[in-house]
Amino acid sequence: CKALGESLKVNQSLKIFNFEACYGIGNDGCKVLADALKMNQTLTSISFACCRTIREEGWKALAEALKMNGALTSINFKCCDGIGDESCKALGESLKVNETLASLDFSLCDKIGDQGCRALADALKVNKVLKNINFSCCISVGGAGFQALYEALEKNQTLTTLGLQACYGLGAAVFNALCQRLETNQALTSISFAGCECVGDEGCKVLSEALKINQALTSIDLSSCQRIGDEGCKALAEGLEVNKVLKRLLLSRCERIGEEGCKALGQLLKINQVLTTIDLACCERIGDEGCTALAKGLEVNQALTKLDLAHCEVGEEGCKALAVSLQRNKALTSLTLRGNNFHDGGIDELVKMLKLNTTLLKLDLGYSGNDKVVRERLKENAVLRSVTIPMVLSNPVLLESARPPRDV
């Protein structure tokens, strides 16, 4: 580290440095790097992910350096379990004066508690530069810490991405308060509550009301929020009938969502012309009826480009309904049906659809029926011009020679 530190003091070209899982770096090494950062004005991104031997003393030294550094825009502290409340207090003071840092990742820093989160939240009230902050799996942060974050969002109009995946201390009351804050906050464009146990149907109703007003949020991740069921899904659909900006709705592994929730989403697709991605993977209660409801929406919708129905217990009837809808739909470019229960009839209808639909670029049918039958049907109809991997069924298939969009 001493040699690297000396090099960084004079280096004028290096922009990215990765120290991930460098267990040999301790407090002394971190202090050397911190001294180098006081002088280096070219490095823009540094990762300390899984540097578990650096403790509070080392991180404090780095925080001091950030008061002087005017180049770094991104720091990754993921899984650095030496970062605790005292480190966050020092980093919070630095954020009050630092004018370049745009992204901080504290995911899996399980020693950060309420005091640390509050210190960072207080900094957000002043900081006008930070755009992305990730607290995912910070399991020691409780209601008081997240309450401070909620208060910070009242003043902060710079932060665009907030990661709160699997933050078990969030609590229903603070989740509801955060959702209500979205009614006035017009900066956040992406927020993740994936895996937050407190999020259920009632929370979705609060979120739905916020979505009717919010004009900034483009992506919401509620994946693995297993208390969300049909009522919550209906509420979200109601909010999105009014909302004109949200593009990505992620509900994978919300296992209580079934037929009724899909009916609401199907109706939404007939109205909403903004949503581009819906992920319902592993919602096993959807079945044929839920899939058919979504398919009816797709017949009209001309905005959605990506739909994931992997492992949703969709059978032949649901498959046929999708095939019919995709003969009319000219927007969908990616469809994932992996792990469902199709029979020959449903597969035949899909193959016929592919002759008429010239928009779909990616179709994933892995483990959804008899692999041999599907390969034969596709080969017989000669619809594939570009196959990424010879094993058609267990891998995604590109259906057109054109290059797929970046988000597919």
TrEMBL record:
The keyword RNA-binding does not apply. GO terms for cellular component: cytosol; nucleus; perinuclear region of cytoplasm. Transmembrane segments: none annotated. Keywords: GTPase activation, Leucine-rich repeat, Repeat. One of its GO terms (molecular function) is small GTPase binding. SUPFAM superfamilies: RNI-like (SSF52047). GO terms for biological process: nucleocytoplasmic transport. InterPro entries: Leu-rich_rpt, Leu-rich_rpt_Cys-con_subtyp, LRR_dom_sf, RanGap. Pfam families: LRR_6. PANTHER family: RAN GTPASE-ACTIVATING PROTEIN 1. This is Uncharacterized protein. The lineage of its organism: Eukaryota, Haptista, Haptophyta, Prymnesiophyceae, Isochrysidales.
